[in-house]
Design a protein that fits this description.
homotrimer, 195 residues, mainly alpha, 0% strand
Chain lengths: 195, 195, 195
């Protein structure tokens, strides 16, 4: 009798069916039920198992929030450039009043520093979090990692753009680094035999 | 009788066998044929299913093109530094004519801005596109997303390096952001239950 | 009789069981043993196959080392800012002695250039290496790719921060780019049919 351990793709499953906090992303019964088996048997191109992994889905959620946050910084940078009339390129200045607006501005530079710091820290998280999710961590612990990083980075951006008093920004940065170091060390522990 | 839903690795499949635009990456018949089954049964280390996913392969193609495009900007930056004799480090200037060439140059800065803008936008795409590919999207719609982003970013680079009249560059940037926002929203819709 | 080709998650396997340099990440016997089968049958949420892929694990190891290297540059940058009293934000300067320390410093800028160059090169590697690992490359050849990149980037950072004589840094950069171009071309070869 044909049996598959490959679970259904997310699109065929109601979100409510996901099992949180148990380390299982599919009800155990469904994985062995004849119905599930025959459904899987008819499916020629199953989605990768990653998307069945509740930890990975949680990681994906927080990562996408942070990427959207970075897009918002880019939009704010553009708005500040227009408001302060400070353009990085002569052709932009010419279109917006004249070459005298081809200049730097401290508010624009502040936005750019916030954006750059995000690149330095959020992009590595996109990697570390994805690999860590595949290491079969405790879902509760994993989500604490992702949540702390996400909140830390959002506070970092707010502290940067609103010039909050030091060391608010540095503390937010340091707190957000803790889950990253934790994930990096766990990945190294798991992968060192393979170097 | 043993049955597996795990398809053959790409290296054992002729590219022509891939099924485009159907949401299936393997012919349904092959997945159930006894031959496929026994071949899979002998395979100890199957390649991940991702590489059986035509949408993911398409995403990979466009992403690699864009990464090569970024490498080209880096090479151009180096060439402009040599031609304009403007080096970021004293040790580079010393090797290329003297410390007076340790200086900034507007053409070099232009290349660096183009490169930085790519980092701000192409790196998030590498994440969003990969996750979106795993969400089982319509292959045709997915490839439109990737294609628009890829063309938008190539036009952005050309407009930046050739100083095309504003707002060519900004329009290319905005057009390329549309598929990114679309993918980000679809990922959030799929993963919000898992936050 | 239930049969699964999905191997056990790494956490249930002793690292010593991994088979190096054979292209197999699981002993073939185990994949077909009744014990393995029943263990897999009880598992509802298997880890993705990626983590069974010795090449992918090796890639993950080197990538994490390089991300930690980038974190070290960030920490060094902060230390140089404090030692040279050169802060990027007025609020930081105010907390560290006064607004006169809101200024640039060549040593700080050097750290920032090293960090930025890492972003330009290590982040694309995180993508190219992951996809390349899924293409079923020879494990020995793959690890040579990862090793050369890793060593090249570490030498690049050392040459940058210690101002080693040119062209040490450029040579390290160029050597590290070789495996990246090789992986990019192999990915393009594999994915061009899917554009």
């Amino acid at each position: 009798m044909p049996v598959s351990n490959c679970p259904d793709p997310p699109s065929r499953r109601k979100p409510g069916e996901a099992v949180f906090g148990t380390g299982q992303s599919l009800p155990a019964a469904q994985a062995r039920s004849p119905l599930a088996v025959s459904a899987a048997g008819d499916r020629a191109a199953p989605s990768p198992k990653m998307m069945e992994n509740a930890v990975f889905m949680s990681f994906t959620f927080y990562s996408t929030i942070l990427i959207l946050k970075m897009y918002v910084i880019a939009i704010i940078t553009g708005q500040v450039r227009l408001r302060k009339k400070a353009f990085a390129n002569p052709e932009d200045a010419l279109r917006n009043g004249g070459l005298q607006y081809y200049r730097e501005d401290p508010d624009v530079e502040r936005c750019r520093r916030a954006h750059r710091n995000d690149m330095e820290n959020i992009f590595p998280f996109l990697f570390l979090g994805a690999i860590y999710s595949l290491l079969d961590p405790s879902p509760a612990v994993a989500r604490i990692h992702f949540f702390i990083f996400c909140v830390g980075r959002i506070v970092h951006t707010i502290a940067y753009l609103l010039r909050l008093k030091a060391p608010t920004r540095s503390v937010a940065y340091s707190v957000a680094q803790l889950p990253c170091f934790s994930m990096a060390l766990q990945i190294l522990l798991a992968t060192t035999p393979y170097w």
